[in-house]
Amino acid sequence: HLLGLQSFLTAGEDETRAWTIQIGTKAPQAAGKIHTDFERGFIKAEVVNYKDLLKQGSLAAAREKGLVGMEGKDYVVKDGDVILFRFNVNLTFSPLGVKRFGMEEKMDLMDISFPNLGIYLKNVPKSFSIFGFEIALYGVIIGLGVIGGILIAAWQAKRSGQDPELYWDFSIYAVILSIIGARIYYVIFAWDQYKNNLINIFNIRQGGLAIYGGVITAFITLFVYAKIKKQNAFRMADTGVTGLILGQAIGRWGNFTNREVFGEYTNNLLAMRLPVAAVRPGDISQSLAEHMEEGMNYIQVHPTFLYESLWNLGVLALILLYWKHKKFEGEIALLYLGGYGLGRAWIEGIRTDQLFIPGTEVPVSQVLAIVLFVGAVACDIVVRLRIKNNGEK
Questions:
Q1: Distance CA 139, CA 206 (A)
Q2: Residue 93: pLDDT above 60?
Q3: Is the pTM of this model over 0.90?
Q4: Element containing residue 111 per DSSP (H, E)
Q5: Which of 52, 279, 327, 390 is the least crowded, having the fewest Cβ atoms under 10 Å away?
Q6: Which is nearest to 338 in space by CA: 369, 373, 306?
Q7: Phi/psi at 185 (nearest 5 deg)?
Q8: Do the Cβ atoms of 171 and 218 come closer than 8 Å?
Q9: Would you say residue 240 has pLDDT above 90?
């Protein structure tokens, strides 16, 4: 203790080992004392005090007495803890005191299932190869979303008496700058992932695009473009958001192939199962880990990418239905900001991969979604009142 050190134990059937760590070490770092891979793949740890274990005579007996705790990534290891670590199935060996998930495999690495719908998808790829060049499906789906968005925006422009070519031209600037904006937003709020390896900032093949970063950049680009082209920015915004919301609805399926953007445990109708080895260890929350029983090699989660995709399609339908009834230029854009914000505020609350405001545990996108929803409703009310009072549109 004078040196600031303490010991924890790992125990097997025939042997017990002690490991020396700094006082205040958290469970993942303690696991890393055994092997660095265990820290990276840490999921959870079963912990029991050694005196309680000796008194009960076995781990099973200690479990029956409720003396074994299930701890997550924030657990601070105590002197004399006996710990059974659980970690990602990708690891290839299992030394004393470490339990690999997947010893009784129930899902193959590339499988995805929706058990309550009776859907089991075998070998869902993340990428495909053309002439030896690996192409990520994430990028392909984002690309399809972009094309779909431009097409519907151009269609809506023609339908409302505007020049579709204006939107094709605008899309060149909007797409490029919005991807950059989405990446910058993500990196800012996930800086710990990149600060020690800056080159990874430029690797977006595995995801890492924050929708709100792209939305903010798209609106800024639109207002600058409209000013240069001497167009009504609010009319362009109304038209542009039809493409934006469809692009988002399609693009979310890139998260499906990447096995990301999922929520906490659920057993509802749309519950989705993913193999542990197919997802980032950091996306497995303590709550998810606690729902994993011994022998399971998968997690069961809210498919939040699906929720958002369906919600966005609903917002798009509302936009198209309401278009002829809008009271002023820019109202459709407010409908988008409020409608998407309302859904995102709810969905963000159950995701496990939230980006937090620095120094807090407050999800930045959830706060922004609520602010935009409230702001959109308030703006709509104010403008409608002014129109009513002034008789102007």
A1: 9
A2: no
A3: no
A4: none
A5: 390
A6: 373
A7: -55, -45
A8: no
A9: yes
